[in-house]
Amino acid sequence: HTKKFKKNGYSVYSEEMDVKAAYKLEIERNLKLAIANGELELYYQPIIDIKTREINSMEALIRWHHPQLGLVSPVDFIPIAEESGQIIAIGMWVMETACKQIKIWHDEGITPFRVAVNISTKQLLQDNFVESVIQTLQKADLAPQWLELEVTESVLLDDIDSIKETLLKLKESGISISIDDFGTGFTSLSYLRNYPFDKVKIDRCFIDDINLDMNGKRITSAIISLAQTLNMKVVAEGIENELQLAYLEQENCNEGQGYYFSRPMPVSSIEIKFKNRGGKLFIE
Ligand code: C2E
Ligand code: MG
Ligand code: MG
Ligand code: MG
Predict the structure, then answer these.
(1) Cα–Cα distance for residue pair 174/197, rounded to 1 Å
(2) Which phi and psi angles does 180 have, rounded to 5°?
(3) Which residues form the signal peptide (predicted)?
């Protein structure tokens, strides 16, 4: 950064930093009101069984409708919420909303599927996290088998013992745990053996590379074999085309998610699809 600053010789870069800092403050200030004002919404993206094309689960992905800024991506506000601690309240809202929604879909007689909820490290480090998740499930009258929690690799770098213990408790209470964005972080392979993961989600960048060259293909199939050898299911993220899907099917990848099947959608759009398909959800 300093290098860039010197090279430019004047304040272009520091102005950019000011703008960024101001944006961050603005987001932080506005996030305080977002839950209360009902500006947050969950979109859902189906996760498909690659063999049967049936929807196995729905990943809940947060959206923020900011009155002035418009639709703000989670990529732009989740890191800020993590830093400020607001992720605790937002995470609770996400968990409650997702559990209630899945319960509604089950009650409507739609083929039961699970809901996958993204969890930040800060949440896992809360003393009462496990209890609060169990309470949320009870309040929504939803059995723990319908909930999947997605954690990223970076989670494993913090306070290893307490995180591991929390994940184990969650698993013991019947909730399943996925490792998200696998392959992009700093995880050593031994984490896969030592942590109670049920699923590995291969990061989108590897799926992108499938079309590129043989090495792209080889890395993906190596991750699939490794995870399956350790008795974990494998989900491919970011499937965008037929070629990628065909390769993943050939390599026996268990599940897939991506624009090729469906973009994340608001509840209203999903319900239209349900009604059209008589309560069974398949992706053709
Ligand atoms: P993620 O958990 O890895 O979620 C997958 C992201 O990939 C989503 O981005 C999804 O829209 C996008 N995606 C899915 N299929 C495709 C595809 O075929 N092509 C491309 N290019 N993208 C695809 P989104 O919704 O913008 O979310 C970004 C990240 O924000 C998530 O990554 C997750 O890390 C975080 N996030 C979202 N919702 C929550 C939440 O409720 N809590 C927390 N802690 N993090 C969240
Ligand atoms: Mg995820
Ligand atoms: Mg991911
Ligand atoms: Mg991601």
Answers:
(1) 12
(2) -90, 155
(3) none
Please say whether the beta carbons of 134 and 99 come within 8 A: no
| Mutational test site, ligand 1, from 63, 118, 129, 182, max ligand atoms within 8 Å of CB | 118
- Kindly indicate the confidence band of residue 1, based on its pLDDT and cuts at 50, 70 and 90: very low
Mind listing the pLDDT tens digit for each residue in 51-80?
988 889 999 999 999 988 899 999 999 999
Mean pLDDT over all residues of the chain?
88
The DSSP string of 119-136 is: --HHHHTSTTHHHHHHHH
Q: How far is C-alpha 248 from the geometric centre of its chain's CA atoms?
A: 20
CA 42 to CA 60: how far, in whole Å?
Answer: 6
Q: Tokens 């972080």 label which residue?
A: 185
- Say what the pTM is: 0.92
Q: Is the pLDDT of residue 227 over 90?
A: yes
Would you say residue 109 has pLDDT above 50? yes
Q: Is the pLDDT of residue 187 over 70?
A: no
- Pocket around ligand 1: residues whose beta carbon is below 6 Å from it? 45, 61-62, 73-75, 78, 94, 118-120, 150, 180-181, 204, 237-240, 257-259, 264
Q: What is the model's pLDDT at position 6?
A: 46
Cα of 11 from ligand 2 centre, angstroms: 38
Query: H or E segment at 265?
Result: strand 265-266
Q: Which residues contact 262 (CB under 8 A, 6 or more apart)?
A: 45, 46, 283
Q: Which residue shows structure tokens 């960048």?
A: 205
State the complex-level ipTM.
Answer: 0.98
| DSSP-H helix ranges across the chain | 2-8, 12-34, 74-84, 87-107, 121-124, 129-140, 160-172, 190-194, 204-209, 214-229, 242-250, 267-276
**Higher pLDDT, residue 132 or 54:** 132
Question: Atom 27 of ligand 1 has which residue's CA nearest to it?
Answer: 74
